[in-house]
Amino acid sequence: MQLSSMLQLGLTGLLAACLPLSMVWMSSDPNKYRKLVWVTVFLTFDLIVFGAFTRLTDSGLGCPDWPGCYGAANPFLAHAEIVAAETLMPTGPVTVVKAWIEMIHRYLAMGIGVLIMALMATAWRQWRKTRRAEYAPALPTMLFVFVLVQGAFGAWTVTLKLQPVIVTIHLLLGMGLLSMLVWLGARQNRASALAHGRFTAPAAAAPAAAPATLGRLALAAAVVLAVQIALGGWVSTNYATLACTDFPLCNGKLVPEMDFEHGFHLWRELGKTAAGHYLPFSALTAIHWVHRNFAFVVLAVLGLAAWRARTHPGVARHARGIGIVLAVQAATGIATVYLNFPLTIAVLHNAGAALLVLMVTMLNYKIKYPSGPVLQASHHQ
User: Fold this and answer.
1) What is the pLDDT of residues 122-131, one digit of tens each?
2) Of 120, 145, 168, 263, which has fewest CB within 10 angstroms of its CB?
3) Are 256 and 286 in contact, with CB atoms under 8 Å apart?
4) 3-state class (DSSP) for residue 57
C-alpha cells in the first residue's frame, strides 16, 4: 500500500473520531473525560454490532487486503478492481456492497482507536497534575495496548482468510475491550458521584457491602458468559448456525451424530479439517450443539446472579436488566433456528451478547466497589 493511501486512510480514521470528540468538547457536561469514556463505550458497542453484521453478511473479505481496499484508502478508488471481482463471482466474497460494509467497519474501528488514544493522553496529563484516582492511567494505557492487539487480529482476520480461531479471538477481544471501557466508565461515574456527595458516608455504607457469595457469583457469571461468547463466535465463524434445524432436539435427536475432534480443532482453515479435507457436517453439528447446550449453563448462572442481586442496593437495576436481556437472548437464539437464520435476528443475538457483557461488567464493578468511602489516590481500580 502506497504512502499516500496510508495517509488518506489515517486521515479517514481521524475524521471518524472528529464528530464524537467535537460532541464531547462542545457538551455542557463539566466532566469531559467521563463523557468521552461513555461515548467511546457507546461506539465500541456499535462497532461490535456492526462487526457482527459484517461477519453475518459474509463481508469480512469484501476488501481482500488490509488495511486498505486493493491498496486504496476507500472503495471509490478501488471501484474497478471490486467490480472486476464481482463480475467474476457475483455471489462471492468481494462485491461493491460488501467492500463498503468491510471498510466502514474498519473506519469505525480506527475512529475508536483515536478516541482511546485521547483517553490515554488525557488520563496521563490529568494524573500528573492532580493525582486523582479517576485519572489513574493504568487502565487507559491497557486499553491502548489492547486496541493495538485487536487491530492486529483484525488484520490477520483478512490476511488469513477468515480462519475461525482468528475471527473468534477477534470477537473476544472486542468484547474484552467493551468490558474494560465499561469498567473505566463505572469508575468515572463513582468518582463523579463521590465528588458531588451523592454517596452515603463511610459508616453508613459498610452494611451495604455485598456478601462474598454474591461477588463470587457475579465473577462466575462473567467467566461463563465469556465462554459462551467464545462458543457463539465459533458457531458463527464456522457457519454452523443452521447445523441443527429444530429445537429443543437437534435434527430430530437429543444427541445427534457429532464429530468433536474436527469441530473443535482450533488451528485450521475455514471449512477444512487440520488435514485440509472438507469439514464434515457432523463437526458443524458438534459446534452448534455445544453452544446450544452451554446456553442452559449461562441461563442458570447469570439468572441466579441476577436473582441474588435483585434486592441488593446499587445493583438491583442491573440485575433486572440482566434478567430481561437473558430472556431476549434465549428468544433470539431459538428464533434464529426456527426462522432459518434471518439476518436481523442474528445481529440482535450478537447485540444481546454485547449488552450482557456491559451489564455483567457493571454488576461486578458495583459489587466490588459499593457506595462508600471516598477513593484514595493510591487506588487504581
Assistant:
1) 999 999 999 8
2) 145
3) no
4) coil
**How would you write 70-125 as a 3-class SS string?**
CCECCCCCCHHHHHHHHHHCCCCCCCHHHHHHHHHHHHHHHHHHHHHHHHHHHHHH
pLDDT of residue 172: 97
DSSP string, 294-345: HHHHHHHHHHHHHHHHTTSTTTHHHHHHHHHHHHHHHHHHHHHHHTT--HHH
From the DSSP assignment, how many helices (H) and strands (E) are in the chain? Answer: 12, 0
Q: With beta carbons less than 8 A apart as the criterion, state whether 47 and 114 touch.
A: no
Residue 99, C-alpha cell as written in the block? 467492500
Return the pLDDT at 209: 56
Q: Angle, nearest 10°, between helix axes 343-368 and 164-195?
A: 40
Question: Which residues, including other chains, have CB under 8 Å from residue 342's CB and lie 6 or more apart?
Answer: 335, 336
Residue 132 has pLDDT above 60, yes or no: yes
Q: How far apart are CA 287 and CA 236, in angstroms?
A: 10
pLDDT at residue 311, as a whole number: 87
Q: Which of 81, 86, 102, 134 is catalytic?
A: 102
pLDDT of 375: 41
- Report the 3 state secondary structure along 142-192: HHHHHHHHHHHHHHHHHHCCCCHHHHHHHHHHHHHHHHHHHHHHHHHHHHH
Provide the pLDDT confidence category of residue 60 given band limits of 50, 70 and 90: very high
Cα gap 201→188, rounded to integer Å: 19
| pLDDT tens profile 177-222 | 999 999 999 999 988 888 766 555 444 444 455 678 899 999 999 9
DSSP state, residue 206: G
Q: How far is CA 247 from the centre of its chain?
A: 27
Phi-psi region of 131 (alpha: psi -120 to 50; beta: other; left: phi over 0): left
134: annotated active-site residue = no
Burial 347-366 (b: 16+ CB within 10 A, else e): bbbbbbbbbbbbbbbbbbbb
pLDDT at 378: 40
Average pLDDT over the chain, rounded to an integer? 91
